[in-house]
Amino acid sequence: MKIRKTLASLAAMATVVSLAACAAPEKKADTTTETGVEAATATSVDDFGGMDALVKAAENEGKLNVIALPPDWANYGEMIKEFESTYDIDISSAQPDGASQDEINAANDLAGTNRAPDVFDLGQSVALANTDMFAPYQVDTWDSIPEQFKDPDGAWVNDYGGYMSIGYDSAVVPEVTSVMDLMKPEYKGKVALNGDPTQAGAAFSGVMMTAIATGGSADDIAPGVDFFGQLKKAGNFLTVDPDSTTIEQGTTPVVIDWDYLGAAAAANVDTWKTVVPEEAVVAGYYFQAINADAPHPAAARLWQEFLYSDKGQNLWLAGGARPVRGDAMAEDGTIDAALWDALPEVTGEPVIPTNEQTETAGAYLAKNWSKAIR
Q1: What is the per-residue burial (b if ≥16 Cβ within 10 Å, else e) of 128-137?
Q2: pTM of this prediction?
């Protein structure tokens, strides 16, 4: 899954970095728009002279580099296929099992080459720590994206989201009704968190969920860190990154993850159930951004236009995620109504940490997470 950091992904990254160090730098595409604006500095489709001109510039580049986008993550597999079939552009998908921080590391390690990521899809904490790497751009549907879900200058924009949940195999463990259930002996050696919360968005939000459930708040993530420390001491916490294979094999019968990701990973397990704890309803969106050093700047901007089009938003919805333009599309009748209505109901007051709360929590995790679970 996107926010795992496995030994395999680390090894793959080491290989990429080694090759980058040995190979001579590659020249990036020199794309000037029909209006005379460099594609790398274009802030809207108007800078290209319209959508047709943007498509032409992107297809002249012919490539798009994405990173850390597993095919089963929010329907990205279908998203990539649709983009490639719509435009004469080949997508190179690197490190599909990478974490958000891996995306930033790759951009830094491969800067100046044609292999650098063109675009990012990041968890909140990693995104906000690296905004100086983003190129501002406002998609054509910008006005239908709520103000609170986008940077006013277009440096980043939220794309899709959901609710933090606990998924479990009901044939293996008892019913989960609250976060504190996970401390019970019945869950010994069975609870997994999707990733490292200092690097991965879902894991970060999982710790935030447990913090709120155990007396903390969006301003105080410390109780969540303590919870996982106690869970580890009790022998209930697995330091295994869950995915569809570990779920199907029964290695990770309890998984803390976003609701749409957990459901997708357990699609082949008929006894899998997902619960959003009423005492800690944590909602969140991922952050989409363009790499300021994108080797294919026009294709990067066309990708953004595709993602935030009605078609792109409905593709995310088909993966069980809540697209950021969902409410606006529901109002104007462009949403897939059947999929929209089928989203699970959530009881409780949602908590969406602010950018400041996320930065504070991220700093605390960086100092205390590894000590808590050692």
Answers
A1: bbbeebbbbb
A2: 0.79
